[in-house]
Automatic annotation (TrEMBL), chain B:
It is a multi-pass membrane protein. Keywords: Cell membrane, Membrane, Transmembrane, Transmembrane helix. Signal peptide: none annotated. The keyword Membrane applies. The keyword Signal does not apply. This is Urea ABC transporter permease subunit UrtC. Residues 341-363 are annotated as: Disordered. Residues 353-363 have a biased composition (Low complexity). Pfam families: BPD_transp_2 (PF02653). It is found in: Cell membrane. The chain crosses the membrane at residues 34-52, 59-78, 108-130, 137-156, 186-202, 237-261, 273-294, 306-325.
């Protein structure tokens, strides 16, 4: 795999998604290279989450192709796509409240186990789980049910579950939404850490977070790619300022 | 005492009560009644697994109970007939033993079918239904419809199934007189033993990774998909296990009570099992077992005093439990235990509270 280090990991071509006549995505091409940290931004309704939904099999596209490391994803069921090596989080984090933090991570790490071995009780902590727990810094809460976690901690647990899956591509849907300043800071550090050895796509609304942590940015607007480039270039682009940044500035004023 | 040790102590105490005390103090008639409750408890254990742990509200366990019961009863009828037609077939004008019945003359086959039939049907149903993501109330209604259809089928095919009367009048249970006190004691001990073994097996399943996965499917089926598991497979396995347990319960019910008939496995008996599990506490396997024994005991006692009144009491109890104590008797016990432990432990060490959030509205 290392010899293709610079090749594209995710290739989306001519993607169209239509909900009851409403075109959510109207012809998007997007390429994410191996090892890249890509931010997807755009105003509400731009189609960011829909794009992730299509990649992960939650939504079926009307047309177009989504190729992951050469494998066509459209039409595959969700768990099959996960098994190919794509993991995602959701805007509203869903962790299993009745299970402990450790059990949540163990479950995420375990889908490659054969069903028969699932009948055994968990003894100890596997390496993948231990390192995920370490990365997200919830070691002290490992044996507590996930239901007691704060909003931020839940998001981190979700990211931890994602790492424990050992995916090749991580898709994070608004990881800092609803977080406090400190939590956002911590999530940013976490993101930087993960991006060092993973390919990551982040959907984000938070412009400050984007400025601090993004390098490559794709701007979506009304279901199309508006601009693509590094943060500075994208911010300087008048079209982006018009549809997104400009409006945010006006609102902020 | 650690929770683990306390669990073993309670299990040992209950085993002592069921295996030593009850046979010593109860008259044979009451012991036989208790054996019947234990049969229901086995079926309830399956419901605890499917509904409590897996979130599948199955209102048709009577079907699997019936399949197990009929498989056992068919063997007993053929054995009694000794090469002739079973008595009810002669009365219904059947002249030749139906092909469906023939293999049940072999006790090994019949006993295997007690488990195989329910598991196979539950697996088939599960694969069809869970793959299509049918769940919640829709699944519940579907299983209830299955129970209704099954009884209609049984009643309608009198020559094959004994119709409304079902299968009864057994004269020989593996070389013993089924009505003799000794046989009744034996079936009691077998039933209690099977319940104990299945309880421990179910407990192990709940504590295993599969059990954790099952709870995860119950609480967030869609999320589980994105962990790379197919929830349909997980649910199908749990549903099949619960069906197998109901089948075993039905098979034991036949020698204990001496009859299996459509009225014992239709919509109402299936619902009563679910109500019993809810009252006992569906989230704990022990609650399911407890509920089945206590509710059926209450039903018998109450019906002896005021026939027909039980249904009202049962319904009222169900409503009360669902609204006031959704975790049932076990939930109430746990609440009381925790409250007691808190009072004893003074001063209370502050639990690591979830970090206070300073929610900021994103721009």
């Amino acid at each position: 795999m290392s010899e293709e280090k610079d090749g594209a990991l995710l290739e989306i071509r001519g993607l169209r998604v239509v909900f009851d006549g409403f075109t959510a995505i109207g012809g998007v091409d997007l390429t994410v290279g191996r090892g890249e940290l890509r931010f997807l931004i755009g105003p509400n309704g731009a189609g960011k989450t829909t794009l992730i939904d299509v990649v992960t099999g939650l939504t079926r596209p009307a047309a177009g192709s989504v190729a992951f490391a050469g494998t066509e994803l459209t039409g595959l069921r969700e768990h099959r796509i996960v098994r190919l090596g794509i993991g995602r989080t959701f805007q509203t984090s869903v962790v299993f409240e009745e299970l402990t933090v450790l059990e949540n991570l163990d479950l995420a790490a375990g889908f490659r186990r054969p069903l028969r071995s699932l009948l055994r009780q968990r003894r100890g902590v596997s390496d993948a789980v231990a390192s995920a727990l370490d990365t997200i810094g919830l070691g002290a809460l490992a044996e507590r049910p996930a239901g007691v976690l704060s909003h931020g901690q839940r998001q981190w647990l979700e990211i931890g579950m994602l790492i424990a899956q050992r995916p090749k591509l991580l898709l994070l849907d608004e990881p800092v939404a609803g977080m406090s300043r400190d939590e956002r800071e911590r999530t940013g550090e976490l993101l930087t850490e993960i991006a060092a050895d993973h390919t990551v796509v982040v959907v984000e609304h938070d412009m400050e977070f984007l400025r601090r942590y993004a390098s490559q940015v794709t701007v979506l607007h009304e279901g199309r790619v508006l601009v693509e480039g590094d943060v500075a270039a994208v911010q300087a682009d008048p079209r982006v300022q018009e549809v997104y940044l400009g409006r945010t500035k006006k609102e902020a004023a | 005492m650690s929770a683990r040790l306390r669990g073993y102590a309670i299990f040992a105490a209950v085993a002592l009560l069921v295996l030593v005390v009850a046979p010593a103090v109860l008259p044979p008639f009451r012991l036989d009644e208790l054996a019947k409750y234990l049969c229901f408890a086995i079926a309830a254990l399956g419901i605890g697994l499917a509904w409590g742990q897996g979130g599948m509200l199955t209102l048709g366990q009577g079907v699997f109970f019936g399949l197990g019961g009929y498989a056992m009863a068919m063997y007993l009828k053929l054995h009694d007939a000794g090469g002739d037609l079973p008595d009810f077939m002669t009365w219904s004008g059947v002249e030749k033993l139906p092909a469906l019945w023939k293999p049940f003359a072999d006790p090994a086959f019949a006993i295997a079918m007690v488990v195989v039939l329910p598991v196979a049907i539950a697996t088939l149903l599960g694969l069809l239904v869970f793959r299509q993501r049918v769940r919640g109330a829709y699944f519940a209604i579907l299983t209830q419809a299955l129970a209704a259809a099954f009884t209609i089928l049984l009643v309608g095919r009198q020559g094959l199934t004994g119709g409304t009367n079902g299968l009864t009048n057994f004269y020989d249970f593996f070389g013993r007189d089924p009505e003799a006190d000794g046989t009744q004691r034996l079936t009691y001990f077998v039933t209690a033993g099977v319940l104990g073994v299945l309880y421990l097996a179910a407990r192990q399943l709940v504590k295993s990774r599969f059990g954790r996965l099952l709870v995860a499917v119950r609480d967030g089926e869609d999320r589980v998909r994105f962990l790379g598991y197919n929830p349909a497979t997980v649910k199908t396995v749990a549903f099949a296990v619960s069906a197998g347990m109901a089948g075993i319960a039905g098979a034991l019910f036949v020698p204990v009570v001496g009859i299996i008939s459509p009225s014992l496995l239709g919509v109402v008996p299936s619902l009563e099992l679910v109500v019993a599990v809810a009252v006992g506490g569906r989230y704990a396997l022990a609650g399911a077992v407890l509920g089945a024994v206590v509710m059926n005991y209450a039903k018998t006692s109450f019906s002896e005093q005021w026939a027909g009144g039980w249904l009202y009491l049962e319904g009222a109890l169900f409503i009360l439990v669902m609204t006031l104590a959704p975790k049932g008797a076990v939930g109430l016990y746990e609440q009381a235990r925790d409250a007691l432990a808190r009072r004893r432990r003074t001063p209370e060490p502050a639990a690591p509270a979830p970090q206070q959030e300073t929610q900021e509205v994103p721009a």
